[in-house]
Amino acid sequence: MKWIDRPQYLQRLLGLQNTPDIKIITGIRRCGKSCLLRAFRQQIQRQDPAANILSLDFTDLDWEEFKDYRALHRYAKEHVKEGAANYLLIDEVQLCPHFELAINSLHAAGQFDIYLTGSNAFLLSGDLATLFTGRYIEIPVFPFSFAEYCRYFEEKSDMQAAFDDYALQGGLAGSYAYRSEQDRAAYIQEVYRTIVTRDLVQKYRLPDITVLEHLSEYLMDNISNLTSPNRVSDTLTANQIATNHVTVGRYIKYLCNAFVFYDTKRYDIKGRRYLETADKYYLCDTGIRYAVLGHRNLDYGRLYENIVTIELRRRGYDVYVGKLYQKEIDFVALRGSEKLYIQVSDDISRGTTFEREVAPLLAIKDAYPKMILARTRHPKYDYEGIDIWDLPQWLREEGESVRTAN
Predict the structure, then answer these.
(1) By Cβ atoms counted within 10 A, which residue in 44, 95, 158, 195 is the most buried?
(2) Residue 197 belongs to what H/E stretch?
(3) Any idea which of 121-130, 131-140, 147-156 has the lowest mean pLDDT?
(4) Is 234 a residue whose pLDDT tops 60?
(5) At what angle are helices 229-238 and 210-221 packed, to 10 degrees?
(6) C-alpha–C-alpha distance, residues 220 and 66, integer Å
(7) Cα separation, 281 vs 295, whole angstroms
(8) CA–CA gap between residue 206 and residue 168 (Å, rounded)
């Protein structure tokens, strides 16, 4: 399989070298966590040939004996080198039962700079504070962006056609090794089913996966729609799937914890407050939707919204759905002191559609940047202070600028 660099993640790890934290790489299965850890190890070796790097991969039988946390702890302590920079890198750490006992002890001793990856069901964001008694930093990794997809398939010279492929094929790069659409979809389906029918069932000891499966497909089918546990529960019950809003709310949380979906809350722009009513849920990768649901109820405008919100998260923004009186802004993106207002559309060539998309942005009276992302197939232009971008161009150009900046 072809290799491409992912410098935005690598530079993030390099920037955290020798900080007094446990570094934890998280993300959905097959998004590239293990590859990132290997690239980081190679970079350390280039920078500091004298560094002492203990690198364990618990999917490799060579490390089988250290899946006992006491043996892991003993091995690390015995291999500390005085006068050298000591690193401990562990891939699939959850395969060592009670690994947190060894890691917390080693971290407290202060002899190693520690980096971990693991199955998304065992290193969930909500669990980290419970597992690790010391300081930790989470480094979220996402499937390939469109800019990365273009670098992987550099032979695809037509950017618009490449984006059409990416929107359906998605960013789980393991699927790129397969030549047929059927085989690519089968690969993605297997990744998805492993998470939903094995990881989450094992993690939360679920007695019945029927509700979880139907719930997940419902959320896929309703990306960008306002959703509440009550609404979902009523729909599933009407379709002979017995459940209730409490179970649905809990299962939605599980799916978000496992990085399958991302919860996007609403933000009142005028009142500058977060709203507790219905949220929107976006899928981690649009390739999963296509592999599981095919063309069923396929809405490209909503699909493009999904791609944009994941891209914003990939770039480090917190993302919300904006509300201004009775108008809705697709996304309010916040990163430090930055704020962006974004509308996403499939086609704004018709005057009525353009006016509908631009009106909420014109109603916002502050000076933060505003933009519309659509399939214009034209260079970026300005309309009354609003940047109008061709969506694939924004994804590729801005994605590349993030890469080179890092």
Answers:
(1) 195
(2) none
(3) 121-130
(4) yes
(5) 110
(6) 40
(7) 19
(8) 31
